[in-house]
Design goal:
Helix content of chain B: 25-40%
Distance between the termini of chain A: 27 Å
CATH topology of the largest domain in chain B: FAD/NAD(P)-binding domain
Oligomer: heterodimer
Bound molecules: flavin-adenine dinucleotide, iron/sulfur cluster, FE2/S2 (inorganic) cluster
Largest interface: A-B, 46 and 43 residues
CATH topology of one domain in chain A: Rossmann fold
Number of helices of chain B: 17
Largest sheet of chain B: 5 strands, parallel
Helix content of chain A: 25-40%
Strand order of the largest sheet of chain A: 12-11-10-9-13-14-17
Number of strands of chain B: 16
Distance between the termini of chain B: 59 Å
Strand content of chain B: 15-25%
Shape of chain B: globular
CATH class of the largest domain in chain B: Alpha Beta
Strand content of chain A: 25-35%
Structural class of chain B: alpha/beta
CATH superfamily of one domain in chain A: Nucleotide-binding domain of ferredoxin-NADP reductase (FNR) module
Number of helices of chain A: 9
Structural class of chain A: alpha/beta
Shape of chain A: globular
Strand order of the largest sheet of chain B: 3-2-1-4-16
Order of helices and strands of chain A: EEHEEEEHEEEHEHEEHEHEEEHEHH
């Protein structure tokens, strides 16, 4: 089988279950923009899964992804070492984040979403916006990309569910306060667990603050040919991979997305058991 | 046939093709027809009358979109010279093992066969299949002659039948060809759509390898329109061929279509074929079918879905089609195979809406009975709803196989490439587009069609590209495409 091979240049653990991989992919690196993702397959038997680029360097010819280990494929990624290669890597896919000078932007991320959020904050900052970042995780050990995000933000708020760092509570609490304080927010950008994005969209809706969310439907090809990734936005069916992954949070049908993401729970559990059992 | 013996009467039927028993085969993904031996194939070839060409009648050859010299290769088979027969096939045909299996030969070469006027036609498709399999198994793929280089380079977008044909032909003419393919495997619909039991993927792979060995470079994982644009390709190559196919699934747009358990044929078949979900959990990509699977549509794609569902363990696989059996657009052979395997045909019925349970999983489909009215523009009788005849069918999986539209990515990212109102790329008879140096063909310019028509398009385009690259770089005015465009 003659397919392109993509070498892992660097692999590091950011938390117990988040691994950051730097992968040689010069062509993708030179074309990538904030908000875009890649589809990769670890080995010949592997599943094609989507991962957002947390960074990309045209100079080094590499892209970076941060992976939360939740199932078989992400665990396989977490076990990769420098010198290993991926079976296939396709990108950059999806529409890039719309970069404009909006004024004051609040970027909110939770969990693995922080890795996805970093290039967006950086790009929006470069586009001349006043950047307020709200970042959250369960505990202080699980906070990732804090330093990176802080460097490209004008203001940063840290939250942990257990209070081990920053605000004791949710990112939405901080957003509420910023809204109550009438900070003149022009746009909100949120990426993280579906429930987090939904809560934030519900919070900004009455204030008519435009809110962009980054969705994570189940994908197969990532190029618009199958419709596995379909999401309902404003009552219409959209393909997450080519029309998104970013959509107007006020118009997204989050219930449908949650249901659709549970489609293969049984099979995913079988796969994971077989993988961990075999080790 | 020994020399001198008088020609006996034509054997009225094709020599039977052995097949896996329907009861057995629905438990596996192995190929259904198991192939014939050399002796039988020589006998089959001897059914051919070696007709002479005449302007007065159509022959087998006139029905083949890639113009294979059929009488000539059959003659060699009659003589038992498979190597020479194969050389003649390869003159025109870049994917013989594929076409010998999936070509709708009953409407093409075999449809014109003189023997077929009174009896069953000569089994041209199965002879072609035999030769290609013989060549592959015996490692007899004749020597690849490398032509002298023309110094020109060509980019081909899409490694489906159209793109691979262009690539093979232009390489043989001495051009340097690079194919850019979005997926990790090459073959287009041949690898992601048509199931293993009709077209084993190892065979597609071998055909692709043959094309590679002839000097074509294939770059997988390259999505044109994302990683590079057609304009980028044009900056580095002397010409570009776009063969990106009709990969966009059509939907019914009925209430409840986004319920879990409702999949496009493309998603279903891609999971199963490209990602090998039929081998889950040995392969990682999951697939799930319920007890009853309903497939909407009546073409080859629908037959493939319904038959695949059975093999994945569905207790019942139902085809719901709005016209009658006579109008089923699928090949007869496919319909026949599906019926043998126990696929149930719910004809003259159309879906109305999908009904889900509290978890968002589909549990029923509501449909309505139809009757046939006057013929429409396509000449087929128009299906009309019978008011009040709605009925409910329990099901846990619905597969939507009601057609595919052209892939929009390349047209969308190539501003000066004109498209028609159907979204296909507008081309002239030579496959030229509104953009100088860019050619197109296959499903992206014709709409969803067949493997061999896509290859025929590729042949014509390759000829025109060769002319453009070596003798005549003139180009029609963009206005010429205005008419075709919307
Ligand atoms: C556009 C996009 C960007 C993403 N970016 C990141 C990222 O940067 N970092 C990260 O850790 N995760 C990211 N994800 C999620 C990641 O793709 C899934 O976690 C991964 O596919 C899970 O695979 P698995 O085999 O490890 O787990 P599984 O056990 O197979 O699945 C666990 C859960 O992940 C989801 N999932 C499973 N298969 C897929 C699939 N093919 N496509 C999408 N979701 C799936 C389902 O909700 C499932 O329940 C992104 C998803 C999308 C759609
Ligand atoms: C399930 C199914 C069953 C069928 N059965 C039969 C049959 O029995 N007999 C028959 O004759 N025909 C059959 N057909 C139809 C036949 O397969 C197609 O007509 C034929 O494959 C068209 O060839 P093509 O080269 O134009 O496109 P495709 O085969 O669609 O190939 C296009 C290629 O381009 C790639 N591509 C698309 N966009 C891009 C991009 N932006 N960048 C890079 N690459 C890109 C795709 O990944 C794909 O590999 C069937 C089709 C389906 C779906
Ligand atoms: S390619 Fe198709 S039409 Fe041509 S000879 Fe072969 S089977 Fe017949
Ligand atoms: S038309 Fe039929 S009998 Fe005549 S040459 Fe062709 S295959 Fe043979
Ligand atoms: S993942 Fe297949 S269309 Fe989006």
């Amino acid at each position: 089988m003659c397919v392109n091979m993509y070498d892992i240049v660097k692999a590091e653990k950011l938390t117990v279950d988040v691994t950051r991989l730097e992968i040689a992919a010069p062509q993708i690196a030179s074309k990538a923009k904030a908000g875009q993702f890649v589809m990769l397959t670890v080995d010949e038997h592997g599943e094609r899964i989507p991962l957002t680029m947390a960074d990309f360097s045209p100079d080094k010819g590499t892209i970076t992804i941060a992976v939360l280990e939740i199932g078989k494929t992400t665990k396989m990624l977490g076990a990769l070492k420098p010198g290993d290669s991926l079976f296939s890597l396709v990108g950059p896919l999806g529409l890039p984040t719309e970069l404009k000078n909006y004024g004051t932007v609040v970027c909110i991320g939770g969990g693995i979403g922080l890795a996805l959020m970093y290039p967006v904050v950086r790009a929006l900052k470069q586009a001349g916006n006043q950047m307020i970042s709200i970042i959250g995780a369960k505990t202080k050990e699980l906070l990732i990309y804090e330093d990176e995000i802080e460097k490209v933000s004008d203001e940063i708020h840290v939250c942990t569910d257990d209070g081990s760092k920053g605000h004791h509570g949710f990112v939405s609490d901080v957003l509420k306060k910023l809204i109550d304080d009438k900070r003149g927010i022009d746009i909100v950008y949120a990426v993280g667990p579906i429930i987090m994005m939904k809560v934030i969209a519900n919070m900004t809706r009455p204030h008519e603050i435009h809110t962009v969310v980054s969705l994570n439907p189940i994908m197969v090809d990532g190029t618009g040919m199958c419709g596995s990734c379909r999401v309902i936005v404003d009552g219409q069916t959209k393909f997450g991979c080519v029309d998104g992954p970013e959509f107007d949070g006020h118009k997204v049908d989050f219930e449908n997305l949650t249901a659709r993401n549970r489609r293969y729970l049984t099979e995913e559990a079988v796969s994971l058991r077989k993988f961990t059992g075999a080790k | 046939m020994p020399e001198g013996k008088k020609k006996s009467k034509i054997v009225p039927k094709k020599y039977p093709m052995p097949e896996q028993d329907p009861k057995e085969r629905i438990k596996n993904f192995d190929e259904v027809p198991t192939g014939q031996d050399a002796e039988t194939i020589i006998k089959e070839a001897r059914r051919c009358l070696q007709c002479k060409e005449s302007p007065k009648r159509k022959l087998c050859k006139d029905g083949c979109p890639v113009e294979i010299d059929i009488p000539a290769f059959i003659k060699k088979v009659q003589e038992g010279d498979f190597a020479e027969a194969m050389r003649i096939v390869r003159e025109k045909q870049n994917l013989p093992a594929v076409c010998g299996r999936v070509c709708p030969y009953e409407n093409q070469c075999e449809g014109n066969c003189i023997v077929g006027k009174k009896n069953e036609p000569v089994g041209i498709g199965r002879i072609e299949r035999f030769l290609a399999d013989w060549e592959r198994n015996e490692q007899k793929h004749g020597k690849i002659v490398k032509p002298s280089s023309t110094g020109k380079s060509v980019a081909v977008v899409g490694a489906g039948p159209a793109g691979l044909t262009v690539a093979g032909d232009l390489t043989r003419l001495g051009h340097k060809v690079t194919v850019f393919e979005a997926l990790q495997y090459s073959g287009g619909v041949l690898v992601y759509g048509i199931p293993e039991f009709r077209l084993p993927k190892a065979i597609v792979q071998a055909e692709v390898d043959f094309i590679r060995r002839s000097g074509v470079e294939i770059k997988n994982d390259h999505v044109i329109g994302k990683l590079m644009t057609v304009d980028d390709l044009l900056a580095e190559h002397d010409a570009v061929f776009v063969g990106t196919g009709a990969g966009l699934p059509n939907w019914t747009n009925l209430e409840g279509e986004n319920l879990n358990g409702i999949l496009s044929a493309n998603e279903f078949l891609t999971r199963v074929n490209l990602m090998k979900a039929f081998n889950f959990p040995d392969y990682d990509t999951p697939i799930r079918v319920g007890k009853r699977v309903v497939t909407l549509g009546g073409g080859n794609v629908a037959m493939d879905c319904a038959r695949t569902a059975l093999r994945l363990g569905a207790e019942e696989s139902v085809i719901l089609y709005r016209r009658s059996e006579a109008e089923l657009p699928a090949r007869r052979e496919e319909v026949h195979h599906a019926m043998e395997e126990g696929v149930r045909f719910e004809l003259l019925a159309a879906p109305v809406r999908y009904i889900g349970d509290e978890n968002g999983d589909v549990k029923q489909i509501e449909a309505v009975r139809m009757k046939l009215g006057e013929p429409d523009e396509s000449g087929r009788r128009r299906p009309i709803k019978i008011e009040g005849s709605n009925f409910i069918l329990d099901c846990q999986t619905v597969l939507i196989a009601i057609g595919q539209s052209p892939n929009p990515l390349v047209p969308m990212t190539t501003p000066d490439l004109k498209t028609t109102k159907w979204g296909t790329i507008a081309v002239d008879a030579e496959g030229r587009t509104s953009k100088k140096g860019v050619f197109a063909g296959g499903d992206i310019s014709t709409g969803a069609a067949t493997v061999i028509l896509a290859m025929g398009d590729g042949k014509r385009a390759a000829k025109a590209m060769h002319k453009y690259l070596t003798e005549d770089p003139s180009w029609p005015d963009a206005e010429a495409f205005e008419k075709a465009a919307c």
